[in-house]
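Listing 4. Sequential folding, example run.
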Amino acid sequence: RATARGRCLVNKFLSTINSMAVFFLATMLLAVSWSPVAEAATRKVNCGKEDLQKAINLAVNGDTVELTGICLGNFRIDGKDLTLTGAATPGPHGIKGVATDIAGLVISRSNKTVLQKLSFSDGAFWGVHAEYSLFTMSNCTVSRNAPRATSRSSP
């Protein structure tokens, strides 16, 4: 009798633990399914007044960086999938490279960067250079870029 009673208590205890585990898992699944999904952010950069590289550095995968005006400099997207776009206001909007040995925009280790409604000028490597990356361009203008790095030294 003691053995049967002991087995009954053990079975009841295991049944209670099993019910608690199922309740805990169900609660966790509901909590995860109701948690808010992070939405992509749009970071607006007014070229000449704000730092485009800082906006790129702060952006996370899926974010959009919207440029107003022409940003002077050489910029880099490294390990992120971003959209760079020109503002809806009348342009031009884009990047004008300032170094002759690097592209105005370098995209490195990106699987899905999108460039749209932008101009790229006065840089090396045709204005945009990709390293181990895939990117798309739409409605962009590329002009006055060297096909490769040029030297500043005189003969």
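-- end of first protein; second protein begins --
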Amino acid sequence: GSRHKAAHGRQPDQTRRRTAGHGGGLAAVAMTNAPQDARQFFEQARWGAKPTCPRCGCERCRTLQGTAGSRYLWKCYGCLQLFTVRTGTFLEGSRIDLQTWRFVIVGRWLENSALQCSREIGYSYKTTWAMLHRLRLAASPSGEPWLRCLMAQCA
């Protein structure tokens, strides 16, 4: 009903998502792609053609099949640990989906305010601020080299 509508007849931020924004065509594509495309985007950026275990550095890794495969788990045959593309990165522990992270990186949202970004991605200001802060720390010189390289390519 009408009690769920925000001011000026717009939907609440949790359900509203825009597909076009600051990043132009790339940002729109990043937000509309399927979740597996975003996962593949991060896997390619982080590992390239050959995945490596974030714990031991071994390249003898395979994706798991079955129900574990639906979570996109990898298994390292060096240390026998399970991992995902998020393990050991700024993405670990984040409940924000990879599609949204990709949208923020490709759209170069670090150059803008958290308030403007929150309006585009449909999350609260507080969540977006924490997200951008986490991303800025990871993109710093002491952060993750694969992310700096990825952001340079998107610029």
